[in-house]
Design brief:
15 strands, Metallo-beta-lactamase, Chain A, 7-stranded mixed beta sheet, 6-stranded mixed beta sheet, binds zinc ion, alpha/beta, globular
Length: 334
């Protein structure tokens, strides 16, 4: 099945100035509609035809891959971060390095909700550095333009990390607060919420549920399920093969899942192979999970390929799963 998606890197080239001019705080973009199967652009247009503007539903809920990387510093793959956009608001899961610049790129391409200063809600799956090294960036870089405190949800330890990061930038805040544009700098404030499995957040757009996932030695690692009026989206975070993913998705619309391709025995020592087996989901395991969870679309992220190619990974996935699947890249929209 073909997957309809928009790559914002391409969209940047064609949308450029027009999209930037059309993006405003209240609106959503003038991009080619970035939706994924099973929905279609034609259906969406039909659904809103003839309705007065005031009665139109909020733009469809979308998933934007801000960063599909891993601890490797691949310049084409920013650190792990995935945005859910619903009702014109962004909810960002994980804060890998590069998250602010990638959000700014999405904003420039027309996704108004991803103006970094308008990101007020973040959800951290676990405290590995590849998922949190962009946290300080999200706190301080948009702080001068953010009008409300940042709300961050995450496992035990997120409160301590937040406190330490704020302390590290004490002098910066003190000096900037004297600038004529500072206006009290509410954007420098962060509220960290330490969560447990279950419902953790709800507003007029989404309901967010955290569920535990096994990730090596981490005591607390979570996946998140987002329920919006029009779509359900599950984001695995980093995890070994987990029953909780199957249960959380259970025919969800989009499952964004990490994956690794076990290196060939000759190419990696056994301890490295054991490490990845304890922390991540192999392509064969993911095929079984997806076949059972039956998402409307499976999106691969945080792909650890070792020496294998994308084609090899997809072929191995296809051996056990025949549903819709996309190999995610930074700034893809589903
Ligand atoms: Zn990771
Ligand atoms: Zn991790």
């Amino acid at each position: 099945m073909a997957v309809v998606r928009t790559t914002l890197f391409r969209a940047l080239l064609i949308a450029g100035a027009i999209a930037a001019a059309s993006a405003c705080d209240a609106g959503e973009p003038a991009l080619p509609t970035p939706h994924a199967s099973p929905g279609s652009v034609a259906e969406e247009r039909e659904g809103t035809a003839g309705r007065p503007a005031a009665a139109r539903p909020a733009p469809g809920t979308r998933v934007v891959l801000l960063g599909t990387g891993t601890p490797d510093f691949d310049p084409d793959r920013s650190g792990p971060a995935t945005a859910v956009i619903s009702g014109g608001r962004a909810y960002v899961v994980d804060l890998g390095p590069g998250v602010v610049r990638r959000a700014a790129a999405a904003h420039r391409a027309g996704l108004a909700a991803l103006d970094p200063a308008r990101i007020h809600h973040a959800f951290v799956t676990h405290l590995h550095s590849d998922h949190t090294a962009g946290y300080a960036d999200l706190i301080v870089t948009p702080a001068l333009r953010r009008s409300v405190p940042l709300e961050v949800y995450g496992p035990p330890g997120i409160e301590q990390m937040t406190r330490h990061l704020l302390a590290a930038f004490d002098r910066d805040r003190a000096i900037r607060s004297k600038a004529p544009y500072a206006r009290g700098l509410p954007g420098y404030r962060v509220t960290a919420h330490e969560i447990a499995p279950g419902p953790i957040f709800e507003d007029e757009n989404v309901r967010v549920t955290a569920f535990p996932v096994p990730h090596g030695e981490w005591q607390s690692a979570f996946g998140y399920r987002f329920d919006a009026a029009d779509r359900s989206i599950v984001i695995s975070g980093d995890t070994t093969a987990a029953r909780s993913i199957v249960e959380a998705c259970d025919r969800c619309d989009v499952l964004v899942h990490e994956v690794y391709r076990p290196p060939d025995p000759g190419h990696a020592p056994q301890p490295l192979r054991d490490y990845h087996a304890a922390y991540h989901t192999s392509v064969a395991q993911l095929a079984k999970i997806a076949a059972e969870a039956r998402p409307g679309l499976l999106v691969l992220t945080h792909q650890l390929l070792f020496r294998a190619s994308e084609a090899t990974l997809m072929e191995e996935l296809r051996a056990g799963y025949d549903g819709p699947v996309a190999f995610g890249n930074d700034l893809d929209v589903y």
